[in-house]
Design brief:
The structure is a homodimer of 205-residue chains.
Chain A (H helix, E strand, L loop, with lengths): L7 H19 L4 E2 L1 H8 L3 H9 L11 E2 H12 L5 E6 L3 H8 L8 E8 L6 E3 L2 E5 L3 H4 L6 E4 L5 H10 L4 E4 L12 E4 L2 H13 L2
Parallel strand pairs in A: 3-4, 3-7, 4-6, 7-8, 8-9
Antiparallel strand pairs in A: 1-2, 5-6
Helix pairs in contact in A: 1-4, 2-3
The structure holds a DNA duplex (30 and 30 nucleotides).
Chain lengths: 205, 205
DNA sequence: AAACATTTGTGATATGATGTACAAGGGTGA
DNA sequence: TCACCCTTGTACATCATATCACAAATGTTT
């Protein structure tokens, strides 16, 4: 990384670029210009160029960017190893749906195992073993940093336990607001709030 | 609405406030000050006061805000009727999980019906009827504005159809990037991208 | 090989969001 | 009723992000 001060806003766009580049690569596109990519993902070309510049000089003037090597750089420099080990905490409806939705294999990694407090859920659902949450420390995969939280209660308590066990990133699918110390990143994906926001926006025009 | 230029960032925080206020109300809290609310949701009190001020003068100096009437105002002014009619497009794993996850009843509204193109999925799964997508216009509920998209393919095509039928807000659970004309709001909730972003962030420190 | 046409990468600038400071005004208690 | 205390709402300052404009560098054409 050229500088270690990549803006938050930029960081949020990297996954979008990566997604688009993979698709373009799959479509057989070998080189692309910031303008084209911009049209593709609805982001100004100049924003794209600046975002890229935080990683380094990835393009060539008068030519554009090489798709394949750009993907390479993104993966390498940003630390996407395709076998990121993920755990799922909460094996209810949503949790099980996410287990089966294995779209992320070979893209980010895989859900190694799941945890729940309900004894009925312990066992093996759909290839992914489910352990009791009390055995977290025992079964937490080596090097696992990221947890997907889909519990239906005691969210904060569960989060505290996860952090204590070394988790540093949590995707929170709960409707609860949870707190975490600096250094731990929580990203809340709340369907209810998302829909509310949509309602606010469509009413605001 | 006092002004019709509510900043995007503010609009994104309204659901957070509403969520917190409901919880506080449920806990029996009758009045709250911006400082307290700020601690509760991890947002600076001054940001909260400014956000509120876009709607009007909702508080009293030296006193704070009345929780019940604040919720009232949010619901009313921002147009949350608790019976927003939602449709679900795509009745696969994730779609079915969302149908069963009826946490949004009496909070935003309800999923009235679902659509899919797979004949095996047509029928009644879990109280919510599933129709064939080709019958969208026939079964689209009166006044329905928002769709939840969980299809596994042909995302853009499906979105075009939805927009043509009058949908103005879409929660996109697909990994696809979709485009829409001005006036239609797309909010993408992509688990894969979210996890990637987390990886980028934790690697960046 | 030289001139031209492109497109990158980045200073400079504009826009948007957040944080500070405080005047204005309602609540509270004597 | 009066004086004090507290919290709101907002003008102003700061910080972050997006956009503009263009020099530098490369591919392409003649």
């Amino acid at each position: 990384m050229k500088q270690n001060k990549v803006p938050k806003a930029t960081l949020q766009r990297y996954p979008i670029y990566l997604k688009a580049l993979r698709k373009l690569h799959h479509m057989g596109v070998e080189r692309i210009m910031s303008r084209e990519l911009g049209n593709f993902v609805d982001i100004e070309s100049t924003t794209i160029r600046r975002d890229f510049s935080f990683i380094g000089s990835l393009g060539k003037q008068g030519y554009g960017y090489d798709v394949a090597s750009l993907i390479e750089v993104f993966n390498g420099q940003l630390g996407v190893n395709f076998d990121e080990k993920l755990i799922l905490v909460g094996a209810g409806n949503l949790g099980r749906a996410l287990m089966n939705y294995n779209r992320w294999n070979h893209v980010v990694g895989e859900i190694v195992c799941a945890f729940d407090t309900d004894n009925d859920k312990i066992g093996s659902l759909s290839e992914v073993p489910v352990y009791h949450l009390r055995d977290l420390k025992q079964y937490l995969p080596e090097g696992c940093r990221i947890a997907i939280l889909t519990v239906s209660g005691n969210a904060q308590e569960t989060v505290d336990l996860l952090i204590e066990s070394g988790i540093v990133g949590i995707v929170n699918f709960t409707h609860e607001h949870i707190q975490a110390p600096k250094g731990v990143i929580i990203r809340t994906v709340d369907v209810v709030s998302t829909i509310q926001e949509l309602i606010f926006q469509v009413n605001n025009f």
